[in-house]
Amino acid sequence: MASNMEELYSSFPDDVPTAPLVTISLQKLVAEDGKEKERLFEASKSLGFFYLDMQECDHGKTLLSGSEEMFDLMERFYELPVEEKLKYDFAAEGKYFGYIGLGAEVVDGKGTREKNEKYNISKDDILSQSDPLPAPSIITNNRPALSNYIHANNRVLTTLFSSLAESLNLPASTFTSLHRLSSPSGCHIRFIRAPPQPIDQRTLTLGEHTDFGSLTILFNRIGGLQVKLPNTTDWVYVRPMPGCAIVNLGDAMVKFTAGILRSNLHRVVSPPGSQADMVRYSLVFFQRPEYDVKMRRLEGGLVDGVPKDDGEVDGESTREWLKRRHQGRKGFTMLMNLISRVSPRTFASTFLAVIESLYQENKKQWITSVIVKNLIKLFLRYLHLSRYCSWPHH
Ligand SMILES: O=C(O)CCC(=O)C(=O)O
Ligand SMILES: [Fe+2]
User: Fold this and answer.
1) Local confidence band at 380 (pLDDT 50, 70, 90 cut-offs)
2) Domain boundary residue among 259, 275, 305?
3) What total of structural domains would you count in the chain?
């Protein structure tokens, strides 16, 4: 490891509370070590976050060196002028992939802006399984490296999925068969860059959320990521560890296992201690189920032992689920944009004026039925969602 990278890791302060993530050895999982598989299962049920030690394992070493290559690429991408990067912002066309500028999304109910830039690179695009989105030459020239990185993640994910399936007494291929590289899906690489903030604004960078997908493989070099410890109100830092990825489970795994596995709340704040003066880069690979996979509990194994409850719906496809989740987030941001532009008084009086004019147009019955219908819908959705996961999601 380059010495400046070692310095980065060791600049994480010793006096901040950190999360007790266990370290799982990829090498031991590959060697079918039963005890290690059990540790992975336990970590996936209890916190839903763990370190994955990549050393001493060929697939791990390939992913590690790939992540270093991606960090270099990410830094070069972010050096592009903002006007250039904005050419690849396709949010207005309703696209999820591409560039998202500083402050484009909100982090909380007060309308505070995100303090990072993001760039989402689709797996299907890089593997030439969908129409390519326009991208800067720094990205198009590096499509082979991006493709290698996707494959490297996939190999490691296969090991994790097989081990988890076996621990659930399901056939080893249960999860891998829902995540085939060759099938269309929302899997993507994300580059994140957060510049240092002035002292009085060192708060949230990325709002609290659980991930939508199945498994997330994250590489951090400096701190900032925090997890909320289960059954507490405590947010604690995840200390980046050299040679390790940070892995977390997303909501899809909770759905598939009827709540046996856990997707935990997390967020990003300014890096701790002296790291607060540094630019923070973060590299993420989001593994999501194939678009046609139904978001519902699997049949068999330990999942069958979880009592079914009446609120459980048959399951929408992953494509619909992702659309709903992304729209929910976009709607939240739009509402916050609107509210933050006008005073609460103006907002309330405009809202009342609209209702009043509709009443005057004899739309009384219509309004009442819409309000009642939506309240029932919201309530049912709340009952259903709150069992599995928290909100908002990413
Ligand atoms: O930057 C990080 O460490 C975490 C990012 C994250 O949670 C996300 O993009 O969903
Ligand atoms: Fe996340």
Assistant:
1) low
2) 305
3) 2
Domain identity same for 139 and 113: yes
**d(Cα 75, Cα 98) in Å, to the nearest integer?**
16
Q: Indicate which ligand has the atom closest to the C-alpha of 204.
A: 1
Query: Is the same domain home to 89 and 191?
Result: yes
What CATH number does residue 152 fall under?
2.60.120.330
The pLDDT value given to residue 340: 57
What tokens appear for 63 in the block?
């992913």
Q: Do both 107 and 242 map to the same domain?
A: yes
Query: Residue 351 corresponds to which tokens in the numbers above?
Result: 């809202």
Q: Which domain holds residue 207?
A: 2-305
Q: Is the CB of 211 under 6 A from ligand 1?
A: yes
Q: pLDDT tens digit string along 68-92? A: 999 999 999 999 999 999 999 999 8
Mutate to test the pocket of ligand 1, among 275, 280, 282 (most ligand atoms within 8 A of CB): 282
Pair type for strands 280-287 and 204-209: unpaired
Alpha-helical runs (H) found in the chain:
3-10, 26-30, 34-46, 58-78, 82-86, 123-126, 137-140, 143-167, 251-256, 318-341, 344-360, 364-388
Nearest to 120 by CA among 141, 157, 91: 91
Q: Predicted ipTM?
A: 0.99
pTM of the model: 0.85
The tokens for 136 are 């800067």
Which domain-ending residue is among 305, 335, 355?
305
